[in-house]
Amino acid sequence: MHIVWAILRVTLLGLQTETGSNRQALEVRCAAVDLEACYSLALDFYYGDSVEWPPEEGATRELDLAAQFFNLACEGGHAEGCESLARMYAEGEGVSSDPARAVELFSRACQLDATAGCIKLGNIYRDGHQVTRDLPQAASLYQRACDANETMGCGHLADMYADRPDFARDLGRAITLYRKECDSNQGPGSGHGCMALGRMYEEGVGLEKDLGAAAQLYEKACEGTYIPSCLPLARMLDDGRGVPQDRERATLLFKWLCDVGGYKEACQR
Fold it and tell me: What is the value of pTM for the model shown?
């Protein structure tokens, strides 16, 4: 490890003449084994001059250096550094694609309490991607994330209880988990849970049919920028089901969804 940090210091000395003062400050702190500074420096190289996520096409980025500093942060026990590097190996972004290395790093990130790493690893075990499919292990990883209030984990686990024929069906458990996700108000992610509950109310599956409750949940999810929920809301507004009919608003939603792309039905309305 001492050799690694010595090499790092040489690397940073070569970079300091090319960067601004903020990056130079991070470089000094990183060379002094400040893991948060190394992680911030990695993010700086990863995003480059991009101001969006995902980084826009054509942005000037230095992915090889990003991977190097994510790795240094991870080696020092920085959970998000491990998770970020795992994504790069999983997607072959700036490094050669290495699914086995990605699994190893997601596992380490999860052990270090990076809940996003637990969810990514859960997805891998759920889908059997580069590992033997293991639904109980996937469920355990989603539960770990959910217990840490990463409610996307709650939603993924709820999907398994509600929808997978090869997993123990438990609609009551799914409803509880969807409610936790919906009530979290964690941006678009919580909309997944709200939409799922809305669908259950609309169809009378696991819950007593209640079109008004369904419309309210679709509305909440759509206002929270969970785009898929805007389509069933538009349908209900157009038909006057569960809400007063409002074809003008329905038309605006259908047009917006058509412009977003991927919603053929909206374009046909």
Answer: 0.82
